[in-house]
TrEMBL record:
Family of this protein: Belongs to the KptA/TPT1 family.
Enzyme class name: transferase
This enzyme's EC code(s): 2.7.1.-
Any coiled-coil regions, as ranges: none
Pfam families, alphabetized: PTS_2-RNA
Name of the featured protein: Probable RNA 2'-phosphotransferase
Amino acid sequence: MNTQRSVRLSKYLSKHLRHKPERIGLTLDAQGWVPVDALMPAAAAHGFRFSRDELAAVVAGNDKQRFTIEDGRIRANQGHSVRVDLGLPPAEPPAYLFHGTVARNVAAIQEAGLLPMGRHAVHLSPDRDTATRVGARRGKPVVLAVDAAAMHRAGHVFHVSANGVWLTDRVPARFLRFPG
């Protein structure tokens, strides 16, 4: 499968497994899973056909490991705007985590902290390089350091998704370290 097809399928899966499953007639279970045998015909009925081999290649080859296939089911690992419970246990975070954004968002973040916006959780990266890549998707990246150890001691709960993205309900501004 060529790169363009792979990217197109990954974006299609993200849209329908994270945000708009109903658009193609899918219903995710409480943990965000849908049978592959339901996904493929639903996609085909809406004009987007793909093979099991293509699906497996996108899941295995996705640079961010956005999806998991297990027991004939598929789900997005995080980033949902639809209500799901990923069943992730609480986890003790490393001392610092990182969040990539762009300069136009910094003033609002300094005031309100990091909020999940349209998602169920704030996404944090385990390293600066990953956060830089995340921020760069929207422009020149700004990387914020999160004092995750202090947040954890203060009672904030963290979870880590199957692909290593750290999730928390919000990050108050007092736990953020801004560059400069």
